[in-house]
Amino acid sequence: YVEGLIEGIASTPEVKKRYLETIKNKTNDLEHIVNQLFMFSKIDIGDFPLRMEELKIGEQLTEFIDDISEEYEKKGIKIILGENVENLIVSVDRVQFCNVLINIIENSLKYGNKENKIMFIECEKESANVVITMTDNGPGVPEGACEKLFEIFYRGDKARRNTSQGSGLGLAISAKIIE
Q: Is the whole-model pTM more than 0.90?
């Protein structure tokens, strides 16, 4: 597109504007990928500062869902909070916790094949652990892909090879944050 502008291929103001918009969008995509790679490498080598704090996980989850539900419903996915814990305190980085949840919701939004997408979230106590389950009504993960899903750059199927839909970094970063 830059060459098209330099060589005069984009000769009308409308075509020039379209070329510039494409350049802008591709640059933003690249910047996002570079930022994700930087974040992943920092997390991977243990040089990513987590700001751990004690918080009531059930209340945090409720507040998070209340804050994003309307926005995501407009985007095409309804978020429903099912079972949730009360008065259970955990140590977590609040910002990164929310980033992980958003990443999973965004994946559901991108790859779901239904018109009325639904994300169902539950939070339960199991022994000394808190288990947050996120289930959607999408097509699911292709057979044999579950064990690879959180690997860096993994893309589930050929339909997901469109880089504008994602870089294959989000779930890998989320897994590292959780670890």
A: no
